[in-house]
Amino acid sequence: MTHIGTRSSLALTRRQRRLRASPAIRALVQETRLAPDMFVLPLFVCEGEGVRREVPSMPGVFNLSVDEAVREASAAKADGIKAVLLFGLPDHKDEVGSSAYDPQAPVQSAVRALKRETPDVLVITDVCLCEYTDHGHCGILVGDQIANDPTVEQLVRAAVSHAAAGADIVAPSDMMDGRVGAIRRELDERGFENTAIMSYAAKYCSAFYGPFRDAAASAPKFGDRRSHQMDPANAREALREVEQDLEEGADIVMVKPAVPYLDVIRRVKDAFGHPTAAYHVSGEYAMLKAAARNGWIDERRAMLETLTAIRRAGADIIITYYAREAARALA
């Protein structure tokens, strides 16, 4: 005969399950918590008026004209989202990405409109050239190579134009050497010393960016981005990149993508202790959406589990296309 209760089990004094017995006690001892005000919502801003065009590979994400971007930011604020990250989709592209620093371009126009209509929403602007060049690369080409220093000059122009429009934070995502220091010096010289820099400090050359390039029409027409974005095999290199950006004046550092690099997020946070962002990128979002649409996963649970993992790894700030859905789920 089998006896359910044995002397050894009755003598057990440390029962981990005691603290999992009910929703109330699980909430009481929960170690990692999510809140809407740690999320940043990316917005793709295009030219025109009344434009709300869904991105085919990113269900629920849209190319938005300035008026629609303001409407989206206002709705996100009502959900508890207090920050947006703007990407620009200009009609005009050229070999040097000159629209990146055009005062009338979509990002600059959206910054002004957001600051006018929703002044308490934090506005972050992506600073890169890939959305603005006709070849789709992140910088100025000399032959088939990206020239670092001429690219930095263009990035500085873009960052200053964003600050002049009213951006709270500029976020260089290009991975050129020295761009954080150059941007910081120029911002300070132009009187924008209070404009913060959130550096894409450890940005990996990832396979998970495909849907973003669909949204931003920024796929390179030849080659790839391995000359400047990081090798996915390297973690110690990420610490060197972060250290350099902090020395140059970055206020916030970022690891991108998020889930494949949770170990890097943890190492960055432990090593430096600075405000640390993680970008839950387009491919990560699209995979969850696709699996949910096929009935393979519970989307709400998978979304919250994923975002919790990013937070648990050490991210203070999570940039995610799920920002509004997650905020509503947490309400």
- Structural domain tally: 1
CATH A-level architecture = Alpha-Beta Barrel
CATH topology: TIM Barrel
Identify the CATH homologous superfamily.
Answer: Aldolase class I
N-C termini distance: 51 Å
Number of strands: 12
By helix and strand content, what is the structural category?
Answer: alpha/beta
Helix content: 25-40%
- Label the overall shape: globular
Give the H and E element order.
Answer: HHEEEHEHEEEHEHEHHEHEHHEH
Low-confidence stretches: none
**What's the CATH class label?**
Alpha Beta
Biggest beta-sheet profile: 8 strands, parallel, barrel
Mean pLDDT metric = 92
Spatial order of the strands forming the largest sheet: 1-4-5-8-9-10-11-12
Over the alpha carbons, how many angstroms does the gyration radius reach? 22 Å
The proportion of strand residues reads 15-25%
Count of alpha/pi helices: 12
Account of the protein in words:
There is one protein chain. With 331 residues, this protein is of the alpha/beta class. The chain has one domain (32-330): Aldolase class I (TIM Barrel). Helices cover 40% and strands 18% of the residues. It has twelve helices and twelve strands. It has helices spanning 7-10, 23-28, 66-79, 106-117, 148-165, 179-189, 210-216, 236-248, 262-272, 282-293, 299-313, 323-330, and strands at residues 39-46, 52-54, 62-64, 83-89, 122-127, 140-142, 145-147, 169-172, 196-203, 252-256, 276-280, 317-320. The strands form two sheets. An eight-stranded parallel barrel has the order 1-4-5-8-9-10-11-12, surrounded by nine helices. A two-stranded antiparallel ribbon has the order 6-7. α4 packs parallel to α5 and α5 (148-165) crosses α6 (179-189). The longest helix has 18 residues, at 148-165. The chain is globular. It starts with 6 loop residues before the first helix and ends with a helix. The mean pLDDT is 92.
